[in-house]
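Please decode residue identities from the backbone states below.
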């Protein structure tokens, strides 16, 4: 998801992970590849025109998920809290240690109600590589 302003019909965002056998992450038994380029989402979703939507807030056509297609919503703030409370959910890598330090800083400043974690940490596949 991108931002906090969304049209009534869609959640604005871009494809971060998409099913692909050459991917390096697995979730729910499916292998996914990572996308780090917002504009590439248009190509990934070429066969899903219902995922193209005009956003008045952004001022252009962007990709988004029709609200009725959302089955599961991951809360970035809940993920931050879970990682803070249960740091063993992380794999102990250098980036995980950095994330724990950042989470500690956020919690120490009582900002955990406005900041969360995203990407592979949010959905629990950060150590899947």
């Amino acid at each position: 998801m991108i931002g906090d302003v969304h049209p009534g019909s869609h959640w604005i965002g871009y494809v971060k992970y998409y099913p692909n056998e050459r991917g390096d992450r697995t979730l729910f038994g499916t292998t996914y590849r990572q996308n780090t380029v917002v504009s590439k989402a248009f190509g990934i979703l070429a066969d899903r025109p219902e995922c193209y939507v005009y956003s008045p807030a952004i001022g252009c056509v962007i990709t988004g998920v029709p609200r009725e297609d959302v089955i599961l919503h991951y809360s970035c703030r809940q993920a931050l809290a879970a990682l803070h409370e249960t740091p063993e959910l992380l794999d102990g890598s250098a980036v995980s240690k950095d994330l724990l330090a950042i989470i500690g800083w956020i919690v120490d400043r009582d900002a955990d109600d406005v900041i969360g974690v995203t990407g592979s940490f949010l959905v629990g596949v950060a150590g899947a590589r």
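Observation: Helices lie at 40-44, 76-85, 94-108, 119-123.
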